[in-house]
């Protein structure tokens, strides 16, 4: 489930392009598989009650999803309004992609299982990155197409933002392994270094600002929370190596392939007047205005002026569910972030899950939606559960049996 949540969709999204078939032929069975696995785990947990999360986090979680369900029901069935997607898709995405898989990962697992989840996640992410690069670079290298117009890699089934975040996840996982090898079974350092380069190369060719920013914030969070005096030289050395390697990869991508990672990174810190930034800011402003006009109940599933989601899940929570739903969603974010920080600071074996959660929370703040940010929801449930487990058990039990 960890591997499929992280890299499953990018992996199957390459199949329609490779074999010339409709994207739903690959995506629908994949979504069904994730739901079936999630329901199976939830059923197992309901039988073995000691294996599932039962903490206070469930209270705001239930309140938020109740209000969000009411909004879904109101805008699609009771008082339907024009929406970007079909009514069924909103329910399928919200519950089938987000809530049910999240509940499926809110289960206690032992350390061995978590390490297997790490291995599978790295493997699937690496295969997905390789397939995505093969699909997209082949026509460019053969001269059949050019990227001069957009400077960003994307396919008809996987946009540049998702591709960039996939690469960032692979780089984060491999970088974490190289820094904390003692927590895992021995693997080849060279292979993880090559896979980290593959991840960074994917981020560079996608040339999307969101993954760049998420990667920077994840690394900064790890450094700040793990900054011990005895680790300082190690952290600075590792960071310097990553910076040098990343700069070199970015130069090659921009100069030789025509993508624009350096230009996109510069636009993060510079005042940018490009069209995408202006549209994003307008979405933020309109979503907040619609909440202020309907503070108790919220206004609609989508931002009404554009007919699109606001690209920020906090703003969207207030816009769609009003003050109560928005506040409870903020509580969910605060509790889960605190749990993630504690896992990182405490040098937990689940640190890599916390790092992924921070990455996809950042993604949801700049380009995500409540019904489409499935990785954010899943990792949110996972970090809450792991921190809950760590707080209640001794370190010896935690290492041996429950994490």
Would you tell me the structural class of the helices and strands? mainly alpha
Q: What overall geometry do the principal axes of the alpha carbons give?
A: globular
Which parts are unreliable, with pLDDT below 50 for 5 consecutive residues or more? Answer: 398-403
Q: How many β-strand stretches?
A: 0
* Average pLDDT: 84
Q: What string gives the helices and strands in order?
A: HHHHHHHHHHHHHHH
Please give the share of residues in helix: over 70%
Q: Calculate Rg over CA atoms.
A: 21 Å
Query: How many DSSP H or I helices?
Result: 15
How far the N terminus sits from the C terminus, by CA atoms, comes to: 16 Å
Number of domains: 1
Largest sheet: none
Which range does the strand content fall in? under 5%
Notes on the structure:
The longest helix has 33 residues, at 313-345. This protein has one domain (2-402). It is globular and about 60 Å long. By secondary structure, the chain is mostly helical. It is 74% helix and 0% strand. It starts with a helix and ends with a helix. Helix 3 packs antiparallel against helix 12 (313-345), helix 6 (160-179) runs parallel beside helix 8 and helix 8 packs antiparallel against helix 13.
